[in-house]
Design goal:
Layout: H1 2-30, H2 36-62, H3 73-92, H4 103-108, H5 114-123, H6 128-154, H7 170-184, H8 192-203, H9 205-218, H10 224-253, H11 260-271, H12 277-285, H13 289-318
């Protein structure tokens, strides 16, 4: 029980601090201090500039292939998570996927980046940089999946012809460019003023995405009775089925004996709520904002308790 409470106590404050930013933004939006046009502008600016800078900065600073020979396992695990989540969603939403393509990413595509870094710093304060490197390597593949398949489906792509140019987004371009530079060993050839500017722009991407999330939720009428079944199915997949599967696989593998931090990283990734970038994508490219907002509110509201719960369960199993 002590191990469970310790794990729960380490995860709870981290997610609360992030939730407070979204709640503050929602309050300001409800008071008309943040206008609808302002939230739209922040969303478009985040997709076009701040998120690409964050991705580029994280990869060029945190990815070192020489010091981490098993680095390829982390992006590969993102693909495995994507395939497991996609399979679960296809089963649970069987018959509805054509009419509701947005429910596919809303059910299993999660907040893989800044939640991981924030909570990892609390759980592993002396290994925070290593934990951050895990995160950046994981999102090497997860971000392209989110900004290709995720963006295409969240904006209603299944209801219209597929166009290759629609998946070519600034975040995807930044991800690919940074990865190529690191693999070629050219990341240090970028002038310092340029890298510092990119880093400063990237640092504001996380709070701005929470501002957009809070402002969007505050300005959206929540008709939970219209989407109750979808919300229940999406939350069940994201907050319960995915972490249960991850914990079962990792516990049976025995990997925690040699790689405890890596296993905790994977448990957290499976337990995180929906990606806030999905809201940015809807604000920028279109989609069912009412349904997405209802699912996101339920997901983040539930994750305040389920995320630290699963961290506690994992720590209890290893004690």
């Amino acid at each position: 029980m002590h191990a469970f409470l310790e794990g729960f106590g380490s995860g709870f404050p981290a997610i609360i601090s992030l939730a407070l930013i979204a709640v503050t933004s929602g309050f300001l939006a409800r008071r008309d201090i943040f206008s609808e046009g302002m939230i739209n502008g922040i969303a478009k600016g985040s997709v076009a500039c701040f998120l690409p800078c964050l991705i580029f900065d994280n990869i060029t600073r945190g990815f070192d292939p020489a010091s981490m020979p098993f680095w390829w396992v982390l992006p590969l695990s993102a693909l495995v998570t994507f395939l497991i989540g996609g399979t679960l969603t296809a089963i649970v939403f069987l018959g509805d996927m054509r009419r509701k393509p947005d429910m596919i990413p809303l059910s299993f595509m999660h907040n893989a980046g800044y939640l991981s870094v924030a909570i990892g710093q609390d759980l592993f304060p002396e290994q925070a940089h290593a934990f951050g490197a895990y995160t950046f390597l994981y999102v090497l593949l997860y971000n392209p999946l989110l900004w290709t398949f995720g963006k295409y489906l969240i904006s209603g792509g299944a209801e219209r012809p597929f166009r290759m140019r629609e998946i070519i987004t600034p975040p995807l371009c930044a991800n690919l460019l940074a990865t190529v530079l690191v693999l070629l060993g050219w990341e240090n050839s970028i002038p310092a003023p340029v890298t510092e500017s990119i880093s400063m722009l990237g640092n504001i991407a996380v709070p701005l995405s929470l501002v957009v999330l809070g402002g969007t939720l505050a300005n959206t009428p929540f008709k939970f009775h219209h989407h109750g079944k979808d919300i229940l199915r999406a939350v069940s997949i994201k907050l319960f089925l995915m972490p249960i599967i991850a914990i079962a696989i990792l516990h049976l593998s025995g990997l925690a004996a040699t790689e405890p931090m890596l296993c905790m990283f994977w448990v957290m990734q499976a337990s995180f709520p929906q990606a806030t970038n999905l809201i940015l994508q809807i604000r920028t490219y279109g989609g069912n904002r009412e349904r997405a907002s209802a699912v996101m509110l339920a997901g983040y509201g539930g994750a305040v308790l389920t995320l630290p719960f699963w961290i506690g369960v994992w720590q209890a199993l290893q004690s």
